[in-house]
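In this section we walk through a basic example: taking a raw amino acid sequence and producing a predicted 3D structure, encoded as discrete structure tokens. The instruction is simple. Fold the sequence below.
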Amino acid sequence: MILIIDDDSAIRSSLSFMLKRAKFDVLAVSGPKEAIETVRSVTPQLILMDMNFSLSTNGEEGLILLRQVKLFCPDVPVILMTAWGSIPLAVQGMQAGAFDFITKPWNNAALMQRIETALELTSKDKSADTVLTDDDGFDRSHIIGKSKALLDVLTTVKRVARTGASVLVTGESGTGKELIAEAVHMNSPRRNKPFVKVNLGGISQTLFESEMFGHKKGAFTDAVTDRKGRFELADKGTIFLDEIGELDLSCQVKLLRVLQEQTFEPLGESRPRKVDVRVVCATNANLEQMVREHTFREDLFYRINLITVHLPALRERREDIPLLARHFADSRCRADGLSPVELTDDALDYLSRLPYPGNIRELKNLVERTLLVCGKQQLTADDFKAQYHPASTTSVTENLQGLTLEELEKRTIMQALEAHGNNLSQVALSLGISRAALYRRLEKYGISFND
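The resulting token sequence is shown next.
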């Protein structure tokens, strides 16, 4: 049974009609008193709750009711219904234990999707089939490893992939967040639809709307033809927003509206277009701290992280290093038409003990570099030791007192460029950022380079 709590009779009627057509049992009540009487005697599957009632419009009644309802039904998901201008109030509700929020007027299809997602993710009777096995048809999407830390992640991916829930993938640079996003898509009902990747760290503020929402011919000087945006390309499928922590505040507002309303307007067009996308985001930034520092919108944070999947660093899953090393060696040999190369036990032992600040990306580079430079059929620990060049931080931190943050960043980048001979992949790796983010900073500071 789904419980609807709203003092507007028209909303109660329309929601009840929609849910009954979807074969749900529905009970609709008009206010907090009736709602508490209901949850005292029955436990709903889900609650749809307005935040404002007749006595006030500040939402305080809604927050109090939410806390009371959670006392009686702690495991029942609550979806809040609020006007767009009251999203900060909905965020408070999320902090108080609500599952999700939707703005009025809502899109029926989007609301039904969120209801189904909430019921799927909180269904206790389905928890037994989420244990990952080797023969259950789960598509790992080239994810290598058998450590408990990784299997825990994949078990979560398996459970949430079949829903429409938004997913936030966190973890250090180089841990394989894009592969997790692909696994979410490939194990979802959208697997045969588009999977569109967007690196937000490589999109400037001025190009954001054109890249994401598209434009009409003549919308601006260089718009010589119509162009589809990334959201339209991802319609019915999944959009992967990488490096979302790099997005500036003005673009965050535009993104939030699309994620909330599932509509967008191409530049040069005033008619909104509907879009049906599953959103997966990734970041190596601490978004919670950014929210506290007011550099990332709190409402957007709660919209994108309905489910958070944290990828462990490579040093936290060392038993996977031999598997990964052999995989990278075999893949490079196949790609270049080389004879298979053997990695000795002492080589694998040596590789398993390295710190890997660059995580899997650093291991891949080390294995491929050693294989190509040595040209041997058998690689030993000494071969890898000769090619292992950890980035030194000593020169980067000297004589930096009195510099502004921007001066410090610029000097650090220039020293890293010199240390790595302008190899941008190695520079980005040593700085712990992506190549796209490095390009943006090179452009920002006017740093010339020859890659």
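Looking at the output, two observations stand out. The chain has 19 helices and 16 strands. The longest strand covers residues 78-83. In the next section we compare this with other chains.
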